[in-house]
Design brief:
alpha+beta, 11% strand, 4 helices, 2 domains, 232 residues
């Protein structure tokens, strides 16, 4: 009686099926990442568009700029006793990248929250007081300036970023940053109302150019983190 050895390997059809399943799984993963990126991009864009609307709503209601409001303590005394007044100079003073409870750029979030224009912690000493973007990274604001060395960020020609207010957001991957620039501005990271600069540990006003190298989106690495600033 002869014994026959059976081939226990995969047939060609079985290999094709396995490869098709793997391709479908990879496609689903990539599509899921695209959906996540799209949702994050939309939320990041809302940060840049919603904050000015909150400021104008506060001005319309109280005839003062949030953060700069010198009567905020008396205005919101019935809500909490720990309200910080602004200096009333008509500007959001202070640097966006500094946390200082005595400056308008830090106080603004307390005023907006007390006015029920945004949600969040009203205690300036709370660890989660400062707002974050859709990626969990800091986002902040200050008044714009025509003086290059006082501007939060300069363009590739060394000019100050124009705007009554400058909103800056950290930790945005290059691919998302460029996509936002295309949708909200001119698509050039070194010109226009939106500028992009590499993420750094210490940010100095006016010290960083808008991009590395030339004024092209090819200078932006898709996965590296960037600071995006927009004048409004």
């Amino acid at each position: 009686m002869s014994l026959h050895k059976h081939n226990i390997g995969f047939t060609l059809i079985e290999l094709v099926i396995v490869l098709m399943i793997i391709a479908l799984l990879i496609g689903a993963i990539l599509k899921g990442k695209q959906l996540i990126d799209s949702a994050q991009e939309k939320q990041l864009e809302k940060d840049f568009s919603n904050i000015p609307l909150m400021i104008y709503a506060y001005q319309d209601k109280y005839k003062a700029i949030p953060g700069d409001d010198k009567n905020a303590a008396s205005r919101f005394s019935g809500i909490t006793a720990s309200v910080q007044n602004g200096d009333g100079d008509g500007l959001i003073t202070g640097n966006w990248f500094d946390f200082n409870p005595a400056t308008d750029s830090t106080i603004i979030w307390q005023h907006l929250r007390l006015a029920n224009l945004m949600t969040g912690e009203i205690n300036l000493s709370a660890p989660d007081y400062l707002p974050v973007n859709a990626l969990g990274k800091p986002i902040d604001i200050q008044s714009g300036s025509d003086v290059a060395n006082a501007s939060p960020i300069n363009d590739l020609q060394g000019h100050a970023l124009h705007g009554t207010y400058i909103i800056c957001s950290r930790g945005i991957p290059g691919a998302l940053a460029i996509s936002m620039d295309i949708r909200l501005d001119d698509g050039n990271p070194g010109t226009g109302a939106m500028l992009i600069t590499p993420e750094v540990g210490t940010f100095l006003a006016g010290a960083m150019p808008a991009t590395v190298g030339t004024n092209s989106s090819t200078d932006i690495s898709s996965d590296k983190p960037y600071i995006v600033c927009m004048g409004v």
